[in-house]
């Protein structure tokens, strides 16, 4: 009964792998760059996942619409019983959303599927940290956009619950929207960074055009989707979802806790 953890280098995959090991499970960590993870990790080619799936009963899977059909065929051939997919709350935005597309394909397999649908990650603040250390500023558009960001460990804890319960135990064919414990503006998040770390940071509210010039994103469509999303969240508190508490039995971790868990990030 081996559990395959894909996306081995990812923050959530690492936390899931640690939790499963602590729980005494037999796991196989797979990555596109297994050498970065030590001798026990195996190679994972999303276009040809069959070798990594041999002898596997459950899978923690990162979302990828391109390779999803190959995954379904290989997982069915390997006799996989449960797939827990790291999707996104954005999947609720309609069938054209990349996560919605992946959910649709992965759910067509013969195994039980559970879709984990987190909103914004607290770890997005890691990208702000590079700016803050270099310039003393965090430059973002729509500073008054609201989100209820979630700690990566809470996502991992929720995933662990579903994997440890296994298929046939109330999680099959379900989606779990997951958020952090409170909705707040990005401006407030930045103020919390200063409050907790003591590092003075100037929050700079960019116009959409300034943001377009400064955001280093290769995919223009993705950039415009993000800008439209943030614009839609200005002055609109994000509803807090009960998923973390429901699955883990503990309240979702706060952003203050996240900052304490990542010391030295902001200097
Ligand atoms: N940031 C947010 O606010 C947010 C919100 C909701 C959902 N999400 C979703 O969460 C995921 C990122 O999670 P994270 O923070 O753990 O990521 P991360 O730490 O940035 O790592 C990205 C991981 O994605 C894996 N990966 C990339 N392409 C893959 C593929 N085709 N097949 C399998 N694995 C693949 C990589 O695995 P390797 O070890 O193989 O390189 C890597 O471990 C993305 O799917 C993103 O859309 C993010």
Number of helices: 11
**From the coordinates shown, what is the CATH architecture of the largest domain?**
3-Layer(aba) Sandwich
Distance between the termini: 44 Å
Q: Radius of gyration, Cα only, in angstroms?
A: 19 Å
Unreliable parts: none
Strand content: 15-25%
Q: Sheet with the most strands?
A: 7 strands, parallel
Q: What name does the CATH topology of the largest domain carry?
A: Rossmann fold
Structural class, by secondary structure, is alpha/beta
Number of domains: 2
Query: Quick one: CATH class of the largest domain?
Result: Alpha Beta
Mean pLDDT: 96
How would you describe what is shown here?
InterPro entries: Ergot_Alk_Oxidoreductase (IPR051604), NAD(P)-bd_dom_sf (IPR036291). It comes from Kribbella yunnanensis. This is NAD(P)H-binding protein. The longest helix has 14 residues, at about 150-165. The chain is of the alpha/beta class. The protein has helices at about 10-20, 50-55, 70-80, 100-105, 125-135, 150-165, 185-195, 210-215, 220-230, 245-250, 255-260; strands spanning about 1-5, 25-30, 40-45, 55-60, 80-85, 110-120, 135-140, 145, 175-180, 185, 200-205. The chain is globular, with a radius of gyration of 19 Å. Helix 1 links the parallel strand 1 and strand 2 (about 25-30). The chain has two domains: about 1-120, Rossmann fold, CATH 3.40.50.720; about 125-145 and about 180-240 and about 250-260, UDP-galactose 4-epimerase, domain 1 (Alpha-Beta Complex). Helix content is about 40%, strand content about 20%. The structure holds NADP nicotinamide-adenine-dinucleotide phosphate. NADP nicotinamide-adenine-dinucleotide phosphate binds near residues 44, 62, 88 and 124.
